[in-house]
Design a protein that fits this description.
The chain is α+β, with helices and mostly antiparallel strands and 392 residues long. It is built from 7 helices and 18 strands. The protein has one domain: Chorismate synthase, AroC fold (4-Layer Sandwich). Helix 5 packs antiparallel against helix 7. The longest helix has 61 residues.
Protein backbone atom coordinates (compact mmCIF):
# COMPACT_ATOMS: atom_id res chain seq x y z
CA UNK A 1 0.00 0.00 0.00
CA UNK A 2 1.27 3.49 -0.87
CA UNK A 3 1.00 5.14 2.54
CA UNK A 4 2.42 8.49 1.42
CA UNK A 5 -0.32 8.86 -1.23
CA UNK A 6 1.79 11.29 -3.26
CA UNK A 7 1.59 9.13 -6.39
CA UNK A 8 -1.10 9.47 -9.05
CA UNK A 9 -1.86 7.25 -12.04
CA UNK A 10 -1.56 3.62 -13.10
CA UNK A 11 0.30 3.44 -16.41
CA UNK A 12 1.83 6.90 -15.99
CA UNK A 13 3.03 7.64 -12.46
CA UNK A 14 2.98 11.28 -11.35
CA UNK A 15 4.61 12.40 -8.11
CA UNK A 16 4.54 16.07 -7.11
CA UNK A 17 6.77 17.48 -4.41
CA UNK A 18 7.54 20.71 -2.58
CA UNK A 19 5.70 23.23 -0.43
CA UNK A 20 4.22 26.68 -0.94
CA UNK A 21 7.10 28.48 0.77
CA UNK A 22 9.95 26.06 0.03
CA UNK A 23 12.67 26.82 -2.53
CA UNK A 24 11.12 24.70 -5.27
CA UNK A 25 8.04 22.72 -6.20
CA UNK A 26 8.15 20.07 -8.90
CA UNK A 27 6.80 16.96 -10.55
CA UNK A 28 8.18 13.63 -11.77
CA UNK A 29 6.39 11.68 -14.50
CA UNK A 30 7.46 8.07 -14.86
CA UNK A 31 6.71 5.66 -17.73
CA UNK A 32 6.19 8.40 -20.31
CA UNK A 33 6.64 6.84 -23.73
CA UNK A 34 9.92 7.62 -25.50
CA UNK A 35 9.81 9.81 -28.58
CA UNK A 36 6.98 12.14 -27.51
CA UNK A 37 7.70 15.62 -28.90
CA UNK A 38 7.93 18.15 -26.06
CA UNK A 39 7.06 21.81 -26.60
CA UNK A 40 8.50 23.89 -23.71
CA UNK A 41 6.59 26.98 -24.91
CA UNK A 42 3.30 25.09 -24.60
CA UNK A 43 4.17 23.89 -21.08
CA UNK A 44 4.94 27.49 -20.11
CA UNK A 45 1.71 28.71 -21.71
CA UNK A 46 -0.28 26.28 -19.55
CA UNK A 47 1.57 27.37 -16.41
CA UNK A 48 0.96 31.03 -17.25
CA UNK A 49 -2.79 30.36 -17.31
CA UNK A 50 -2.59 29.08 -13.73
CA UNK A 51 0.06 31.33 -12.21
CA UNK A 52 -0.79 33.96 -9.56
CA UNK A 53 -0.83 37.69 -10.16
CA UNK A 54 -2.38 37.49 -13.64
CA UNK A 55 -5.42 39.71 -13.01
CA UNK A 56 -7.39 41.77 -10.49
CA UNK A 57 -9.37 38.69 -9.40
CA UNK A 58 -6.38 36.53 -8.46
CA UNK A 59 -3.82 36.65 -5.67
CA UNK A 60 -1.14 39.35 -6.19
CA UNK A 61 1.65 36.90 -5.31
CA UNK A 62 4.24 37.42 -8.05
CA UNK A 63 5.58 34.11 -9.37
CA UNK A 64 7.02 33.58 -12.86
CA UNK A 65 6.31 29.83 -12.60
CA UNK A 66 9.03 29.09 -15.14
CA UNK A 67 9.19 25.40 -16.03
CA UNK A 68 12.68 23.92 -15.74
CA UNK A 69 12.93 20.49 -17.40
CA UNK A 70 15.79 18.72 -15.62
CA UNK A 71 15.48 15.14 -16.92
CA UNK A 72 13.70 12.81 -19.32
CA UNK A 73 13.98 14.95 -22.47
CA UNK A 74 16.72 15.00 -25.11
CA UNK A 75 16.70 16.87 -28.41
CA UNK A 76 13.10 17.90 -27.83
CA UNK A 77 11.72 14.39 -27.26
CA UNK A 78 11.07 12.21 -24.25
CA UNK A 79 13.66 9.51 -23.59
CA UNK A 80 11.39 7.09 -21.70
CA UNK A 81 13.20 7.78 -18.42
CA UNK A 82 11.58 9.75 -15.54
CA UNK A 83 10.68 13.26 -16.68
CA UNK A 84 11.23 15.89 -13.98
CA UNK A 85 10.10 19.54 -14.06
CA UNK A 86 11.11 22.08 -11.40
CA UNK A 87 9.41 25.40 -10.62
CA UNK A 88 11.15 27.89 -8.35
CA UNK A 89 9.29 29.72 -5.59
CA UNK A 90 10.42 33.36 -5.75
CA UNK A 91 7.89 35.48 -3.86
CA UNK A 92 7.33 33.80 -0.50
CA UNK A 93 6.32 35.93 2.47
CA UNK A 94 6.35 33.49 5.35
CA UNK A 95 6.16 36.34 7.89
CA UNK A 96 2.53 36.87 6.86
CA UNK A 97 1.67 33.65 8.69
CA UNK A 98 3.72 34.16 11.86
CA UNK A 99 0.78 35.41 13.94
CA UNK A 100 -1.38 32.36 13.14
CA UNK A 101 1.25 29.62 13.41
CA UNK A 102 -0.50 28.04 16.43
CA UNK A 103 -4.08 28.64 15.29
CA UNK A 104 -6.43 26.30 13.44
CA UNK A 105 -7.54 28.18 10.34
CA UNK A 106 -11.23 27.47 9.59
CA UNK A 107 -11.65 25.53 6.36
CA UNK A 108 -7.91 24.92 6.06
CA UNK A 109 -5.67 21.88 6.54
CA UNK A 110 -4.04 23.01 9.80
CA UNK A 111 -6.03 20.89 12.25
CA UNK A 112 -6.34 17.70 10.21
CA UNK A 113 -2.69 17.73 9.10
CA UNK A 114 -1.56 18.31 12.69
CA UNK A 115 -3.66 15.38 13.89
CA UNK A 116 -2.36 13.12 11.13
CA UNK A 117 1.34 14.04 11.07
CA UNK A 118 1.94 15.74 14.41
CA UNK A 119 3.20 18.85 12.62
CA UNK A 120 2.06 21.31 9.96
CA UNK A 121 3.89 23.74 7.69
CA UNK A 122 1.81 26.87 8.39
CA UNK A 123 3.72 28.98 5.85
CA UNK A 124 1.12 29.40 3.15
CA UNK A 125 -0.36 26.01 3.87
CA UNK A 126 2.78 24.07 2.96
CA UNK A 127 1.90 20.94 1.02
CA UNK A 128 -1.85 21.68 1.31
CA UNK A 129 -1.44 24.94 -0.61
CA UNK A 130 -2.96 25.43 -4.04
CA UNK A 131 0.61 26.20 -5.13
CA UNK A 132 1.07 22.44 -5.57
CA UNK A 133 -1.33 22.54 -8.53
CA UNK A 134 1.33 24.22 -10.68
CA UNK A 135 3.08 20.84 -10.70
CA UNK A 136 -0.10 19.17 -11.94
CA UNK A 137 -0.47 21.73 -14.72
CA UNK A 138 3.11 21.10 -15.87
CA UNK A 139 2.46 17.34 -15.94
CA UNK A 140 -0.92 17.91 -17.58
CA UNK A 141 0.78 19.86 -20.37
CA UNK A 142 2.82 16.73 -21.18
CA UNK A 143 -0.41 14.72 -21.20
CA UNK A 144 -2.06 17.29 -23.47
CA UNK A 145 0.81 16.95 -25.95
CA UNK A 146 0.22 13.19 -25.89
CA UNK A 147 -3.53 13.67 -26.47
CA UNK A 148 -2.96 16.25 -29.20
CA UNK A 149 -1.29 13.56 -31.32
CA UNK A 150 -4.57 11.62 -31.06
CA UNK A 151 -6.83 14.60 -31.85
CA UNK A 152 -8.34 14.80 -28.36
CA UNK A 153 -9.22 18.27 -27.05
CA UNK A 154 -10.05 19.38 -23.49
CA UNK A 155 -11.90 22.64 -22.81
CA UNK A 156 -12.69 24.01 -19.35
CA UNK A 157 -14.41 27.25 -18.36
CA UNK A 158 -16.17 28.96 -15.46
CA UNK A 159 -19.95 28.55 -15.63
CA UNK A 160 -20.88 30.05 -12.27
CA UNK A 161 -19.49 32.43 -9.65
CA UNK A 162 -21.62 32.83 -6.55
CA UNK A 163 -25.20 33.16 -7.77
CA UNK A 164 -24.21 34.36 -11.26
CA UNK A 165 -24.70 31.62 -13.85
CA UNK A 166 -23.53 31.72 -17.48
CA UNK A 167 -26.36 31.37 -19.98
CA UNK A 168 -24.42 30.96 -23.23
CA UNK A 169 -21.39 28.94 -24.27
CA UNK A 170 -18.83 30.31 -26.73
CA UNK A 171 -15.45 28.56 -26.43
CA UNK A 172 -13.73 31.32 -28.41
CA UNK A 173 -14.16 33.89 -25.62
CA UNK A 174 -12.86 31.81 -22.69
CA UNK A 175 -9.38 33.34 -22.78
CA UNK A 176 -10.76 36.82 -23.54
CA UNK A 177 -11.97 37.46 -19.98
CA UNK A 178 -10.20 37.14 -16.65
CA UNK A 179 -12.68 34.70 -15.11
CA UNK A 180 -12.39 32.33 -18.10
CA UNK A 181 -16.11 32.17 -18.75
CA UNK A 182 -17.61 31.06 -22.07
CA UNK A 183 -20.23 33.81 -21.67
CA UNK A 184 -18.82 37.36 -21.98
CA UNK A 185 -21.91 39.05 -20.58
CA UNK A 186 -21.99 36.80 -17.53
CA UNK A 187 -18.22 37.29 -17.15
CA UNK A 188 -18.70 41.01 -16.54
CA UNK A 189 -21.08 40.31 -13.66
CA UNK A 190 -18.80 37.59 -12.29
CA UNK A 191 -15.83 39.97 -12.26
CA UNK A 192 -17.86 42.68 -10.51
CA UNK A 193 -18.96 40.21 -7.85
CA UNK A 194 -15.44 38.91 -7.23
CA UNK A 195 -14.00 42.41 -6.97
CA UNK A 196 -16.75 43.40 -4.54
CA UNK A 197 -16.07 40.32 -2.41
CA UNK A 198 -12.33 41.09 -2.56
CA UNK A 199 -12.91 44.60 -1.17
CA UNK A 200 -14.73 43.04 1.75
CA UNK A 201 -11.77 40.76 2.44
CA UNK A 202 -13.97 37.74 1.72
CA UNK A 203 -14.10 35.02 -0.96
CA UNK A 204 -16.64 33.36 -3.24
CA UNK A 205 -16.93 29.96 -4.93
CA UNK A 206 -18.25 28.77 -8.28
CA UNK A 207 -18.57 26.01 -10.83
CA UNK A 208 -16.14 24.97 -13.57
CA UNK A 209 -17.27 22.84 -16.51
CA UNK A 210 -14.97 20.58 -18.52
CA UNK A 211 -15.64 19.13 -21.98
CA UNK A 212 -13.60 16.44 -23.72
CA UNK A 213 -13.97 16.28 -27.51
CA UNK A 214 -13.00 13.40 -29.80
CA UNK A 215 -12.54 10.91 -26.99
CA UNK A 216 -12.37 7.39 -28.43
CA UNK A 217 -14.93 4.74 -27.51
CA UNK A 218 -13.91 2.11 -24.97
CA UNK A 219 -11.79 3.95 -22.39
CA UNK A 220 -12.41 2.94 -18.78
CA UNK A 221 -12.70 -0.29 -16.82
CA UNK A 222 -16.01 -1.97 -15.92
CA UNK A 223 -15.69 -1.85 -12.12
CA UNK A 224 -12.94 -0.31 -10.01
CA UNK A 225 -11.32 1.95 -12.58
CA UNK A 226 -14.37 3.35 -14.31
CA UNK A 227 -13.41 6.37 -16.38
CA UNK A 228 -15.83 8.66 -14.55
CA UNK A 229 -14.68 7.30 -11.17
CA UNK A 230 -11.07 8.12 -12.02
CA UNK A 231 -12.12 11.59 -13.18
CA UNK A 232 -13.92 12.09 -9.87
CA UNK A 233 -10.92 10.88 -7.88
CA UNK A 234 -8.59 13.19 -9.80
CA UNK A 235 -10.85 16.21 -9.24
CA UNK A 236 -11.54 15.53 -5.59
CA UNK A 237 -7.80 15.31 -4.97
CA UNK A 238 -7.76 19.09 -5.44
CA UNK A 239 -8.18 20.92 -2.15
CA UNK A 240 -10.70 23.48 -3.42
CA UNK A 241 -13.09 20.98 -5.04
CA UNK A 242 -16.14 19.90 -3.03
CA UNK A 243 -18.45 18.46 -5.69
CA UNK A 244 -18.31 16.54 -8.97
CA UNK A 245 -20.88 15.49 -11.55
CA UNK A 246 -20.75 13.76 -14.90
CA UNK A 247 -23.22 14.64 -17.65
CA UNK A 248 -26.48 15.99 -16.24
CA UNK A 249 -25.50 14.65 -12.85
CA UNK A 250 -27.85 15.57 -10.05
CA UNK A 251 -30.51 17.02 -12.34
CA UNK A 252 -31.13 13.50 -13.67
CA UNK A 253 -32.77 12.40 -10.42
CA UNK A 254 -36.00 14.25 -11.30
CA UNK A 255 -36.25 12.55 -14.69
CA UNK A 256 -37.74 9.18 -15.56
CA UNK A 257 -35.95 6.47 -17.44
CA UNK A 258 -37.96 7.21 -20.56
CA UNK A 259 -36.55 10.76 -20.73
CA UNK A 260 -33.18 10.12 -19.10
CA UNK A 261 -31.94 7.31 -21.37
CA UNK A 262 -29.82 8.39 -24.34
CA UNK A 263 -31.35 6.74 -27.43
CA UNK A 264 -28.93 5.19 -29.92
CA UNK A 265 -28.93 5.69 -33.68
CA UNK A 266 -26.53 5.20 -36.58
CA UNK A 267 -25.37 8.37 -38.35
CA UNK A 268 -24.77 8.69 -42.11
CA UNK A 269 -21.33 7.08 -41.77
CA UNK A 270 -22.75 4.12 -39.86
CA UNK A 271 -21.23 5.23 -36.57
CA UNK A 272 -23.37 4.53 -33.50
CA UNK A 273 -24.29 7.78 -31.71
CA UNK A 274 -26.73 8.94 -29.02
CA UNK A 275 -29.46 11.50 -29.72
CA UNK A 276 -28.95 13.11 -26.32
CA UNK A 277 -25.99 13.10 -23.94
CA UNK A 278 -27.45 13.00 -20.44
CA UNK A 279 -24.78 10.44 -19.51
CA UNK A 280 -22.01 12.89 -20.32
CA UNK A 281 -20.15 10.61 -22.73
CA UNK A 282 -19.60 7.74 -20.27
CA UNK A 283 -21.84 4.68 -19.86
CA UNK A 284 -21.10 1.90 -17.35
CA UNK A 285 -17.75 3.55 -16.64
CA UNK A 286 -16.63 3.37 -20.29
CA UNK A 287 -16.50 6.19 -22.86
CA UNK A 288 -19.10 5.94 -25.62
CA UNK A 289 -17.55 8.39 -28.10
CA UNK A 290 -19.79 11.36 -27.31
CA UNK A 291 -18.44 14.55 -25.73
CA UNK A 292 -17.48 13.92 -22.11
CA UNK A 293 -19.00 16.66 -19.93
CA UNK A 294 -18.20 17.24 -16.27
CA UNK A 295 -18.68 19.93 -13.65
CA UNK A 296 -16.87 20.62 -10.41
CA UNK A 297 -17.96 22.73 -7.43
CA UNK A 298 -15.20 25.09 -6.28
CA UNK A 299 -15.46 26.25 -2.68
CA UNK A 300 -14.81 29.82 -1.51
CA UNK A 301 -11.12 30.11 -0.56
CA UNK A 302 -10.76 29.55 3.19
CA UNK A 303 -8.01 32.16 3.71
CA UNK A 304 -9.93 35.43 4.09
CA UNK A 305 -9.25 38.80 5.69
CA UNK A 306 -12.38 38.67 7.82
CA UNK A 307 -12.44 38.09 11.63
CA UNK A 308 -13.22 34.43 12.41
CA UNK A 309 -13.57 32.31 15.51
CA UNK A 310 -11.06 29.54 16.16
CA UNK A 311 -8.95 27.84 18.82
CA UNK A 312 -5.25 27.09 19.11
CA UNK A 313 -3.64 23.70 19.65
CA UNK A 314 -4.33 24.02 23.40
CA UNK A 315 -8.05 24.69 22.90
CA UNK A 316 -7.82 28.38 23.78
CA UNK A 317 -10.36 30.50 21.88
CA UNK A 318 -9.14 33.24 19.51
CA UNK A 319 -10.50 35.74 17.03
CA UNK A 320 -8.21 36.16 14.05
CA UNK A 321 -8.11 37.07 10.38
CA UNK A 322 -5.73 35.80 7.74
CA UNK A 323 -3.11 38.21 6.42
CA UNK A 324 -1.18 37.64 3.22
CA UNK A 325 -2.19 37.38 -0.43
CA UNK A 326 -5.06 35.14 -1.45
CA UNK A 327 -7.48 34.61 -4.33
CA UNK A 328 -10.97 36.02 -3.75
CA UNK A 329 -12.21 33.36 -6.20
CA UNK A 330 -10.12 30.42 -7.34
CA UNK A 331 -12.26 29.46 -10.39
CA UNK A 332 -10.20 31.27 -13.08
CA UNK A 333 -7.05 29.46 -11.96
CA UNK A 334 -8.82 26.14 -11.42
CA UNK A 335 -9.70 26.00 -15.14
CA UNK A 336 -6.19 24.97 -16.35
CA UNK A 337 -5.75 22.67 -13.34
CA UNK A 338 -9.03 20.89 -14.16
CA UNK A 339 -7.91 20.43 -17.76
CA UNK A 340 -4.57 19.05 -16.59
CA UNK A 341 -6.11 16.40 -14.34
CA UNK A 342 -8.49 15.29 -17.09
CA UNK A 343 -5.56 15.03 -19.50
CA UNK A 344 -3.58 12.86 -17.09
CA UNK A 345 -6.52 10.49 -16.53
CA UNK A 346 -7.16 10.19 -20.27
CA UNK A 347 -3.50 9.52 -21.07
CA UNK A 348 -3.45 6.81 -18.41
CA UNK A 349 -6.56 5.08 -19.78
CA UNK A 350 -5.45 5.35 -23.40
CA UNK A 351 -2.13 3.69 -22.58
CA UNK A 352 -3.95 0.99 -20.65
CA UNK A 353 -6.24 0.37 -23.62
CA UNK A 354 -3.36 0.37 -26.09
CA UNK A 355 -1.46 -2.10 -23.92
CA UNK A 356 -4.51 -4.37 -23.90
CA UNK A 357 -4.76 -4.21 -27.69
CA UNK A 358 -1.03 -4.87 -28.01
CA UNK A 359 -1.34 -7.89 -25.73
CA UNK A 360 -4.30 -9.17 -27.75
CA UNK A 361 -2.38 -8.67 -31.00
CA UNK A 362 0.63 -10.54 -29.59
CA UNK A 363 -1.64 -13.36 -28.43
CA UNK A 364 -3.23 -13.50 -31.88
CA UNK A 365 0.23 -13.61 -33.47
CA UNK A 366 1.32 -16.43 -31.17
CA UNK A 367 -1.84 -18.41 -31.94
CA UNK A 368 -1.31 -17.85 -35.67
CA UNK A 369 2.27 -19.10 -35.33
CA UNK A 370 1.07 -22.19 -33.44
CA UNK A 371 -1.58 -22.80 -36.11
CA UNK A 372 1.09 -22.63 -38.83
CA UNK A 373 3.36 -25.00 -36.91
CA UNK A 374 0.48 -27.45 -36.39
CA UNK A 375 -0.34 -27.28 -40.12
CA UNK A 376 3.30 -27.99 -40.99
CA UNK A 377 3.40 -30.90 -38.54
CA UNK A 378 0.24 -32.32 -40.04
CA UNK A 379 1.74 -32.04 -43.52
CA UNK A 380 4.93 -33.72 -42.34
CA UNK A 381 2.93 -36.45 -40.62
CA UNK A 382 0.89 -37.06 -43.79
CA UNK A 383 4.11 -37.18 -45.82
CA UNK A 384 5.69 -39.72 -43.47
CA UNK A 385 2.57 -41.85 -43.50
CA UNK A 386 2.53 -41.77 -47.30
CA UNK A 387 6.14 -42.85 -47.50
CA UNK A 388 5.51 -45.76 -45.12
CA UNK A 389 2.62 -46.98 -47.33
CA UNK A 390 4.88 -46.89 -50.41
CA UNK A 391 7.62 -48.89 -48.65
CA UNK A 392 5.13 -51.54 -47.62
Amino acid sequence: MNTSANEFGSMIKMITFGESHGPYIGVVLDNVQPGLAIDPAFIQHELNRRKPGQSSVTTPRNEADTAIIVSGVMNGKTTGTPLCILIQNQDQRSKDYGNIAQLFRPGHATYTYLQKYGMFDFRGGGRASGRETACRVAAGAIAKLFLRERGIEIIAYTTQVGDIIAETTDYSVIEQNIVRSADLQAAEHMIALIENVKEQGDSVGGVVEIVVKNCPVGLGEPLYHKLDADFASARMSLGAIKGFEIGNGFSRVVKRGSTNNDAYYADETGRVRTRTNHAGGIVAGISNGEDITMRIAVKPVSSINVPQETVDEYGVAHIFQTEGRHDPCICPRVVPVAEAMVALVLMDHILLQERRHTAEEKTAERLATIDREIALLQMYRAQVASEQIVHK
